[in-house]
Each structure stands twice: as C-alpha cells, then as structure tokens.
Design a protein that fits this description.
The chain is mostly beta strands and 135 residues long. It has one helix spanning 68-75, and strands spanning 10-13, 19-33, 44-58, 80-87, 90-104, 112-119, 130-134.
C-alpha cells in the first residue's frame, strides 16, 4: 500500500478549467432507525446515497473558468459529471449540480475561487450514483 500525495490530484467536469488545487467530498447515505420495542439492538434501514463537496483554487484568465457555460452545465436539474481524482487510477465520478461559486480578490494575495457541489436530482435509486475506480 502506498500513500496518496495531493500533488497528483485533479478535478474535472463540464466547463471546469483553471488552476484548481483543492477538492473535498463527503459521501453519505440516509439511515432510518426502525428499532421496535422488542428489539435488543438497533435496527437500521439504509436509504439513498448523497454526496456534497467543494473545490477551489486560484482565479486565472482562462476563458470560461467562471462563466455561464460552467454554471449552465452544472445548475440544470440533471447537472454535469464531476470527476474527482486523488491520483491516476483513483477517481470518483458523479453527476453533480453546482449550488454556489465564491470569488475573492485581495490586493496583497491570490485571487481565489471556490464552488460547492452536490449530487444531481437524477442521481437516485437503489444503485450507487457514483462511478468509483480505486486501484
């Protein structure tokens, strides 16, 4: 087993260009407690999957980095595919919507951008809405 170094990471998707250097994601699944009076331990029923996350980096002048094309690709109900790469061969891809984009320009520092994403509304059902490739 070899440790993963963040230098090999990446995030890609419809309209995502620029100098991104961080991403995070939380994958979860709804859990309902269905424990009855006669049960001696907890009984839980698993529900649908969810994923929320964020990505960010340094603003640059790449055409379309923060554009209506990027937003349109990820704000429609069916979203767009976002692929999170920890290193080559270790990826998680899912259809996501972008719910916010924040930019910060500071005279004495970097101009940064961050955006938040979550699973698209069409990513539901009994099958996992993710494509996970981990080697």
């Amino acid at each position: 087993m070899a440790a993963i170094n963040g230098n090999a990471g990446n995030i890609s998707g419809n309209g995502i260009v620029g100098t991104l250097n961080t991403w995070s994601a939380t994958i979860s699944r709804a859990v309902s407690d269905v424990t009855g009076f006669a049960n001696t331990g907890r009984n839980r029923l698993l529900g649908v999957y969810d994923m929320t996350g964020s990505a960010g980096g340094v603003l640059d002048n790449t055409a379309g980095f923060v554009s209506t094309n990027f937003l349109a690709a990820h704000t429609a109900a069916d979203g767009g595919t976002i692929t999170l790469t920890a290193e080559s061969g270790n990826t998680i891809a899912a259809k996501c919507v972008v719910d916010s984009v924040a930019m910060n320009v500071n005279k004495t520092g970097d101009a940064t951008v961050t955006f938040n994403f979550s699973l698209a509304s069409t990513a539901t059902g009994t099958d996992s809405p993710f494509t996970i490739s981990w080697s």
